[in-house]
Design goal:
By secondary structure, the chain is mainly beta. It contains no helices and eleven strands. The strands form two sheets. Strands 2, 4, 5, 6, 9, 10 and 11 form a seven-stranded mixed beta sheet that branches. Strands 1-3-8-7 form a four-stranded antiparallel beta sheet, with no helix packed on it. It is globular, with a radius of gyration of 14 Å.
Length: 118
């Protein structure tokens, strides 16, 4: 059974930082691309950042230079370091796993809430 345990969300002031973590189980972590989606109220879900199994990273334009995604295959964990947060970053952030070879496979976590205080 695939399971993601996400943590690190919370309430933060504009300009602040948070570090999200996602521990995955039930998958062979090292062969999956890992990422983070977010969904804000009234908006479509968007892929914020992804790191391939080879370590290549990609970000949505709105977070480039502020967010950093990383992974630790030994710990089956993917991280999202978020700096210079602003109100547009308020959303539920969900862990994401993707296998693009053989049978295409995707999994999403339940999410952790990130809220920017006014």
């Amino acid at each position: 059974q695939v399971q993601f345990v996400e943590s690190g969300g919370g309430l933060v002031q504009p300009g602040g930082s948070l570090r999200l973590s996602c521990v995955a189980s039930g998958i062979r972590f090292s062969i999956f691309d890992m990422g983070w989606y977010r969904q804000a109220p009234g908006k479509q879900r968007e892929l914020v950042a992804i790191i391939t199994r080879g370590g290549i990273t990609n970000y949505v334009n709105s977070v480039k230079g502020r967010f950093t995604i990383s992974r630790d295959n030994a710990k089956n964990t993917v991280y999202l370091q978020m700096n210079s947060l602003n109100s547009e970053d308020t959303a539920v952030y969900s862990c994401y796993a993707r296998k693009t070879f053989d049978v295409f496979t995707e999994y999403w976590g339940q999410g952790t809430q990130v809220t920017l205080s006014s």
